[in-house]
Amino acid sequence: RIKVKGKLVCVHIEFVEGLGRDSAAIEYLKKIGVDGIITTKPNLIKDIKSHEMIAIQRLFMLDSRSLEMGIKSVLDEKPYAVEIMPGVASKVIKRMKKKINIPIIAGGLINDKEDIIDALSCGASAVSTSNPLLWNE
Q1: Domains of the chain with CATH codes
Q2: What pTM value is reported for the model?
Protein backbone atom coordinates (compact mmCIF):
# COMPACT_ATOMS: atom_id res chain seq x y z
CA ARG A 1 0.00 0.00 0.00
CA ILE A 2 2.87 2.37 0.67
CA LYS A 3 4.33 1.93 -2.81
CA VAL A 4 0.94 2.66 -4.39
CA LYS A 5 1.16 6.12 -2.81
CA GLY A 6 4.57 6.61 -4.47
CA LYS A 7 6.54 6.32 -1.24
CA LEU A 8 9.75 4.41 -0.63
CA VAL A 9 9.66 1.46 1.76
CA CYS A 10 12.57 1.44 4.19
CA VAL A 11 12.90 -1.12 6.97
CA HIS A 12 15.05 -0.91 10.08
CA ILE A 13 16.62 -4.37 9.90
CA GLU A 14 17.35 -4.58 13.63
CA PHE A 15 13.64 -4.10 14.44
CA VAL A 16 12.40 -7.09 12.42
CA GLU A 17 12.11 -10.05 14.79
CA GLY A 18 13.37 -13.34 13.41
CA LEU A 19 15.31 -11.71 10.59
CA GLY A 20 19.08 -12.00 10.58
CA ARG A 21 21.49 -9.16 9.98
CA ASP A 22 23.25 -10.67 7.01
CA SER A 23 23.28 -10.87 3.22
CA ALA A 24 20.44 -13.43 3.14
CA ALA A 25 18.19 -11.08 5.13
CA ILE A 26 19.05 -8.18 2.82
CA GLU A 27 18.32 -10.35 -0.23
CA TYR A 28 14.96 -11.36 1.28
CA LEU A 29 13.96 -7.76 2.00
CA LYS A 30 14.83 -6.78 -1.56
CA LYS A 31 12.81 -9.72 -2.92
CA ILE A 32 9.67 -8.63 -1.03
CA GLY A 33 9.92 -5.08 -2.38
CA VAL A 34 11.76 -3.13 0.29
CA ASP A 35 13.59 -0.15 -1.24
CA GLY A 36 15.99 0.60 1.58
CA ILE A 37 17.37 -0.63 4.85
CA ILE A 38 18.10 1.37 7.99
CA THR A 39 20.81 -0.03 10.22
CA THR A 40 23.07 0.91 13.10
CA LYS A 41 25.62 -1.64 11.84
CA PRO A 42 28.22 0.04 9.60
CA ASN A 43 29.38 -3.33 8.28
CA LEU A 44 25.95 -3.89 6.65
CA ILE A 45 26.06 -0.69 4.57
CA LYS A 46 28.32 -2.11 1.85
CA ASP A 47 26.21 -5.28 1.63
CA ILE A 48 22.98 -3.28 1.34
CA LYS A 49 24.50 -1.16 -1.43
CA SER A 50 25.74 -4.28 -3.26
CA HIS A 51 22.08 -5.39 -3.46
CA GLU A 52 21.31 -2.03 -5.14
CA MET A 53 19.18 -0.88 -2.22
CA ILE A 54 19.13 2.40 -0.32
CA ALA A 55 21.43 2.15 2.71
CA ILE A 56 20.58 4.43 5.64
CA GLN A 57 22.95 4.49 8.58
CA ARG A 58 21.39 5.29 11.96
CA LEU A 59 23.70 7.09 14.39
CA PHE A 60 23.18 7.98 18.02
CA MET A 61 24.72 11.38 18.74
CA LEU A 62 25.26 11.24 22.47
CA ASP A 63 28.46 13.21 22.89
CA SER A 64 31.42 14.69 21.02
CA ARG A 65 33.11 11.29 20.71
CA SER A 66 30.06 9.67 19.09
CA LEU A 67 29.87 12.64 16.71
CA GLU A 68 33.49 12.15 15.63
CA MET A 69 33.09 8.39 15.26
CA GLY A 70 29.80 8.84 13.40
CA ILE A 71 31.35 11.22 10.88
CA LYS A 72 34.24 8.81 10.31
CA SER A 73 31.88 5.87 9.86
CA VAL A 74 29.70 7.74 7.34
CA LEU A 75 32.75 8.87 5.36
CA ASP A 76 34.12 5.31 5.36
CA GLU A 77 30.89 3.44 4.55
CA LYS A 78 29.21 6.05 2.28
CA PRO A 79 25.53 5.31 2.98
CA TYR A 80 22.84 7.00 0.88
CA ALA A 81 21.63 8.90 3.95
CA VAL A 82 22.18 9.09 7.69
CA GLU A 83 19.54 9.16 10.42
CA ILE A 84 20.71 11.08 13.47
CA MET A 85 19.24 10.24 16.85
CA PRO A 86 17.90 11.92 18.84
CA GLY A 87 16.39 14.39 16.46
CA VAL A 88 14.39 16.27 19.08
CA ALA A 89 16.42 16.53 22.29
CA SER A 90 14.85 19.84 23.34
CA LYS A 91 11.37 18.34 22.97
CA VAL A 92 12.42 15.35 25.06
CA ILE A 93 13.59 17.65 27.85
CA LYS A 94 10.20 19.41 27.81
CA ARG A 95 8.31 16.09 27.95
CA MET A 96 10.48 14.72 30.74
CA LYS A 97 10.07 17.92 32.75
CA LYS A 98 6.28 17.47 32.66
CA LYS A 99 6.45 13.85 33.84
CA ILE A 100 9.17 13.80 36.49
CA ASN A 101 9.84 15.96 39.51
CA ILE A 102 13.64 15.88 39.69
CA PRO A 103 16.32 18.05 38.06
CA ILE A 104 17.19 17.32 34.44
CA ILE A 105 20.80 17.71 33.31
CA ALA A 106 21.29 18.13 29.56
CA GLY A 107 24.52 16.62 28.27
CA GLY A 108 26.12 15.56 25.03
CA LEU A 109 27.00 17.80 22.11
CA ILE A 110 26.79 21.00 24.15
CA ASN A 111 29.26 23.04 22.09
CA ASP A 112 28.42 26.70 22.60
CA LYS A 113 26.50 29.18 24.73
CA GLU A 114 23.46 28.87 22.44
CA ASP A 115 23.26 25.13 23.22
CA ILE A 116 23.33 25.93 26.94
CA ILE A 117 20.59 28.56 26.64
CA ASP A 118 18.46 26.23 24.50
CA ALA A 119 18.72 23.35 26.98
CA LEU A 120 17.95 25.57 29.97
CA SER A 121 15.03 27.26 28.20
CA CYS A 122 13.52 23.83 27.49
CA GLY A 123 13.50 22.96 31.17
CA ALA A 124 16.91 21.53 31.98
CA SER A 125 18.14 22.52 35.43
CA ALA A 126 21.80 22.26 34.45
CA VAL A 127 24.08 21.44 31.54
CA SER A 128 27.02 19.07 31.39
CA THR A 129 29.81 19.61 28.84
CA SER A 130 33.37 18.43 28.26
CA ASN A 131 34.19 21.76 26.60
CA PRO A 132 36.33 23.74 29.11
CA LEU A 133 35.62 27.00 27.25
CA LEU A 134 32.00 26.75 28.42
CA TRP A 135 32.63 25.91 32.07
CA ASN A 136 32.52 29.56 33.12
CA GLU A 137 29.48 30.52 31.03
Answers
A1: 3-85 (3.20.20.70), 89-131 (no CATH)
A2: 0.76
